[in-house]
């Protein structure tokens, strides 16, 4: 951030009075520009023994497999965001079940929220997907998954499926967890 | 938003190519300024039969009672945000338990996440609180609560306490739910 989105003057990074961390401040109009984490909402669509994955048509991680998920938009709920992303990326209708993984990624200011879902009917690649397919556990492309959040969510799912008990899993992804996917850059 | 925070030129509101909703666009440098919901993280601190509430020293709803909660910051986890807000508003240390309410407020682009917590030791008003106190169920100031999210979280808690089973409650607050607190403006 270089300029104030309210008045167009230059901003500077400094700790406001009474605050404890640096913010972008506009000395011209007095606006404090707060920046906050974003929610990535999505689903784990299940049909019988199989789960639905999408192969990414866009960066980052183009060509790698992921669950349908993306940034939650203003004016929608977390569940609506999960449904919308599932439709946009996989042209798939699902019946949403419970919130299944909630994963913090503090180093990139994201919070993932993935819902269990039952796949209803057909599916087809959306514009952000190269292909969409159903996978048995033994066929999951573990070495070609797009993000550590996806690997972790799928691992929880197949583990929980052995006991039949699915509950919310909360955890944190560290920079080290991400290195395997993105390198240490 | 009036100006581009990257280059300082005027932005305009329009639907980008390939998108389906209006964004603030900068024709000068090409930046698309996405805006996304914010997470409000907090806790429901419990000590024996009592719960801890804070009376707000700041707008909105100054003078009304609330649970310690506030905007999640970049570079922290949801749990860290709940702990930090509890310390800032009530100078209270807590042991975090499970995520208890997750409440969407799509009309104001917020998602509340309140954790159950066990209060440890003392407490005192932080700079954003006029006072902090412990309440039995029969003494909860239901007519002087700050926000509908707080009323709903407390109602779930006292209901669940009768059965001893505490599980995640997900729900949505509508503009109508908020009218009782803020009027219909």
From TrEMBL, chains A, B:
This protein's UniProt keywords: Hydrolase, Kinase, Transferase
Superkingdom: Bacteria
Gene Ontology molecular function: any one: hydrolase activity
Pfam family, one: NUDIX
Occurrences of domain Nudix hydrolase (ranges): 36-158
SUPFAM superfamilies for this protein: Nudix (SSF55811)
Protein name per UniProt: NUDIX hydrolase
Source organism: Vreelandella malpeensis
């Amino acid at each position: 951030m270089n300029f104030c989105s309210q008045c167009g003057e230059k901003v500077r990074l400094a700790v406001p009075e009474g605050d404890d961390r640096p913010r972008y401040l506009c000395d011209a109009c007095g606006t404090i520009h707060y920046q906050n984490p974003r929610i990535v909402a999505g689903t784990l669509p299940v049909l019988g023994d199989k789960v639905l994955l999408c192969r990414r048509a866009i960066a980052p991680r183009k060509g790698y497999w992921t669950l349908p998920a993306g940034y939650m938009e203003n004016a929608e709920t977390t569940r609506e965001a999960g449904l919308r992303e599932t439709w946009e990326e996989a042209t798939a209708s699902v019946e949403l079940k419970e919130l299944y993984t909630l994963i913090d990624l503090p180093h990139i200011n994201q919070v993932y929220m993935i819902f269990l879902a039952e796949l209803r009917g057909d599916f087809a690649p959306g514009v952000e997907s190269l292909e969409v397919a159903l996978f048995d556990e033994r066929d999951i492309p573990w070495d070609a998954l797009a993000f550590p959040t996806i690997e972790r969510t799928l691992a929880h799912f197949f583990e929980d499926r052995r006991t039949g008990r699915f509950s919310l899993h909360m955890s944190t992804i560290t920079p080290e967890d991400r290195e395997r996917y993105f390198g240490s850059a």
